[in-house]
Write a structure and sequence with these properties.
The protein has about 200 residues and is α/β, with parallel strands linked by helices. About 35% of the residues lie in helices and about 20% in strands. It has six helices and seven strands. The protein has helices at about 10-25, 55-65, 80-85, 100-110, 135-145, 170-180, and strands at about 30, 40-45, 70-75, 90-95, 115-120, 145-155, 160-165. The protein has a seven-stranded mixed beta sheet with strand order 1-7-6-2-5-3-4, sandwiched between helices. The longest helix is centred in the N-terminal third of the chain and has 17 residues, at about 10-25. About 35% of the residues are buried.
Length: about 200
């Protein structure tokens, strides 16, 4: 995986300090921590209903001292912003060519020597949707890493890391458990999120 702001020592420290102060002053609480067994993991990013989710997610990642990469639609990576988005940990996804994203992600996680957390929004869009994509699940299963249930609740102004979930291979049962955890969270545009 490519070099990011999270692996740039001095800038990482400065941005962590800024993030902690900004989140505190704006009334946000950051909860949880990343257990050692999840140093390599897939993080669910839910609810995902607004463009504001990305900057808040990055600030929470700094506050929790994570080493994250995140998937975003290819349009976010157009010039002149491509280099910046990549440096912020972005991985461009061409939705119309997304058939090998799972296999490429599994390989990328396996090749990383050290901690890495791949953030995947299960809705696949900020728009209203009732169905979650299952790519995050199959990436974790294929890479043999746990899923960390990360959350951002705009109503309570709380964000962080929830339970660590080991995918069993029973997609229906596992998705029911995962979605049950997210049922109470409210995105910035709450009417666009359904954990069902």
């Amino acid at each position: 995986m490519h070099r990011t702001v999270f692996s740039t020592p001095l800038i990482n420290t400065l941005l962590r300090t800024f993030s902690v102060i900004f989140l505190r002053l704006s009334g946000w609480k950051v909860q949880g921590n990343l257990p050692a067994e999840a140093c390599k993991s897939v993080l669910i990013a839910a609810p995902h209903t607004s463009n504001w989710d990305l900057p808040y997610t990055l600030m929470v990642a700094f506050a929790l001292r994570l080493n994250v990469y995140w998937m975003g639609k290819e349009q976010l990576f157009r010039p002149p912003f491509r280099r910046l988005m990549m440096w912020l940990g972005g991985i461009p996804i061409a939705r119309e060519k997304a058939s090998n994203v799972v296999a490429a992600s599994v390989l990328a996680i396996a090749q990383v020597d050290g901690p890495v957390q791949l953030i995947v929004p299960p809705e696949g869009t900020r728009d209203k949707t009732r169905y979650w994509k299952t790519g995050f699940y199959y990436i974790a299963l294929g890479a043999q890493v746990p899923i960390v249930m990360a959350y951002m609740d705009y109503q309570k102004k709380v964000s962080g890391l929830g339970p660590v979930f080991a995918p069993s291979g029973d997609l229906a049962a596992d998705m029911a458990s995962i979605k049950a955890f997210y049922a109470s969270f409210k995105g910035k545009n709450a009417d666009q999120f359904h954990a069902e």
